[in-house]
Amino acid sequence: MSVLIGVGVVAVVAAGYVGRKGWLAFHRAVGITPGTLKYVEPSQLPTPPMLQLTLVDKQIKGLPPVIVEQLLRIDGKADIFQQWRNEAVKAGQTPMVSEDEFMVSKLLQTRVPELIESYQHIARHEDLLQQAANRASNAAHANSQVSGEENMSENKAQALGLLLEVLIKIETKLDSLLEGCQNEALQQMQVMQRYLDQRQ
């Protein structure tokens, strides 16, 4: 009886060993190294490269994730629009620059970096005020600083809201410009179809 129990234990241990080795071999075969994944804070991830926006990593680093996502969407749409214009130039067309195109270009190249700098300036000052309030040793002084912190917190929230609102408006303008490009291409196709229909 003890021989059967010993054989059973050895069989279970051998099956576990072979199963684990097989599991690790499977992971290596598909390119995964088990046990090496490490959690990285989202704020410590490298910022993705911007294709059309002229922002440096220093400007993007301290921004909230919602703003970074919005900037990436705007950058992607601006890149698509620029590719559309480049393809039109390569095709021999000279696309005219509309007022909306000029405004969006100006916003993307100069105003968005200025707005981000203003937001970061407000955020830096709020952080400094909070540090000063934390260092305060007097309870009465700390109580008077709480209202100042709430006011600065409201200022930071207002600045964030304004920045987000401006970015949403820029994205809406880019959407309308891209839709205009698509409509223009569709109209050219319809003109060609009408021409061919008249020739039949």
Report on the structure:
- There is one protein chain.
- This protein has 200 residues and is an all-alpha fold.
- Helices cover 78% and strands 0% of the residues.
- It contains five helices and no strands.
- The protein has helices spanning 2-29, 57-61, 65-90, 99-135, 139-199.
- Helix 4 (99-135) runs antiparallel to helix 5 (139-199).
- It starts with a helix and ends with a helix.
Estimated helix fraction? over 70%
Question: What is the oligomer described by this structure?
Answer: single chain
- Low-confidence segments, ≥5 residues, pLDDT <50? 145-149
Tell me about the biggest sheet? none
Strand content: under 5%
Radius of gyration: 30 Å
Q: Looking at the structure, what is the overall shape?
A: flat
What's the number of domains?
Answer: 2
Question: SSE string, helix = H, strand = E?
Answer: HHHHH
Number of strands: 0
- State the distance separating the first and last CA atoms: 95 Å
> What's the pLDDT, averaged over the residues?
82
Give the class from helix and strand content and strand pairing: mainly alpha
Count of alpha/pi helices? 5
